[in-house]
Amino acid sequence: MLNRPRRNRVSATIREMVKETTLRPANLIYPLFLVDGENIKSEVKSLPGNYRWSLDLLLSEIQDCINLGLHSFILFPSVNEEFKNSTATYSYSSKNFYLKAIKTIKEKFPNICLISDVAMDPYSSDGHDGYVRDGEILNDETLPILGKMAVAQAEAGIDIIGPSDMMDGRVEFIRKELDEEGFKNVGIMSYTAKYASAFYGPFRDALDSAPKEGDKKTYQMDPANSLEALKEAELDEAEGADYLMVKPALHYLDIIQILKQNSNLPVAAYHVSGECAMLTAACQNGWLEYEKAMPETLLSMKRAGADVILTYFAKDYAKMVKNGVITL
Ligand code: PBG
Questions:
Q1: How far is the C-alpha of 273 from the C-alpha of 223, rounded, in Å?
Q2: Is the CB of 129 under 6 A from ligand 1?
Q3: 328, pLDDT greater than 90
Q4: Ligand 1: centre distance to CA 239 (Å)
Q5: Among 20, 31, 63, 327, which is most buried by a count of CB atoms within 10 Å?
Q6: How far is the centre of ligand 1, averaged over its atoms, from the C-alpha of 252 (Å)?
């Protein structure tokens, strides 16, 4: 036998030497849920270990993460029903607690990278990402609302805008609005290939943002399609996106790979709430070992081609790196 692949696996040192993929905490983005109020840390039942934070407590949570080597965060607002309406006006109101929080967070931690969510659903009385009229989710009528939301977030000090709405043409629309208002260095991480997935359940629980009627299939992509992801990527790139995101991640590793192979932009993968909840549940049952299964899961996305991974496990991963459980 001339070829014995096992020779390259013979010792830990050799295995480390030929390792092809590493995942550093710097590649991770930690999603955080914000609620209005004080002294609130309420666990999301369907996503154990994740909380809706009031700003005061969130600030110490962010400090904690920074101490672990985690510096990038994506922030989502859980909005009281009374502030929701059909045109999501609260999303760009100067009274919006989310915008105020962005300002405070960036003042306290100027060096972190803070990413926003741009979509109507947390603020919409219809629970949809776009403007609804007679049961139809209108595209072009939604764009100005998203534009106002993005500019308001940029004014508050956000580093990167995250349009998660899947309306056509929104990246270009937002890019032009930002540039016109003087925010040319604020980036756009576009949810490029966002699928109409069953794995967003715990997130919608966290924000109480599920659609009141119908589903999101006229704007989010069909899980059966991959050529369509290339089409979306081509458009987002032409419209000025700085990152292309695939969402969900774990069930769409093939999409991550084709986007990576077909674009020079960094590819982000959103390891969504339901995907994280599955693993957490199996580990809580003693069916999987968290400290092994979790890093293997994240590594699969990096290996597929993700440069950046958004995951609810980011803090635990950073902790494991810090404690030497994971070597880079
Ligand atoms: C909504 C949005 C969703 C997520 C991020 N932004 C849910 C949806 O489209 O219904 C899901 C994230 C997750 O499940 O972790 N604009």
A1: 17
A2: yes
A3: no
A4: 22
A5: 31
A6: 15
pLDDT for res 272? 98
Angle of helix 227-238 relative to helix 170-180, nearest 10 degrees, comes to 20
Of 112, 110, 109, 131, which Cα lies nearest the Cα of 120? 131
Averaged pLDDT, 121-138: 95
Which residue among 79, 153, 272, 312 is best mutated to probe the pocket of ligand 1, counting the most ligand atoms within 8 A of its Cβ? 272
Which residue type, as a one-letter code, is found at position 270? Y
247 is catalytic: yes
For residue 289, the tally of other CB atoms under 10 A from its CB is 11
SS3 49: coil
* Residues facing residue 74 across a β-bridge: 31, 115
pLDDT band of 209, cuts 50, 70, 90:
confident
Give the pLDDT of residue 220.
97
Residue 210 has pLDDT above 90, yes or no: no
The helix-helix angle for 97-108 and 143-156 (nearest 10°) equals 30
Instruction: Give the pLDDT of residue 308.
Output: 98
Residue 56 in contact with residue 83, Cβ under 8 Å?
Answer: no
CA-to-CA separations, 205 to 45, 132, 140, 199, 208, in angstroms, rounded = 8, 21, 28, 12, 5
The response to whether residue 119 sits with its C-beta less than 6 Å from ligand 1 reads: yes
Q: What is the largest CA-CA distance in the chain?
A: 73
Cα-based angle 117, 74, 232 (whole degrees, multiple of 5): 55
Residue 138: partners with Cβ closer than 8 Å, 6 or more residues away: 130, 131, 132
Per-residue pLDDT, 192: 98
Q: Which of 129, 166, 194, 213 to mutate to test the pocket of ligand 1 (most atoms within 8 A of CB)?
A: 129
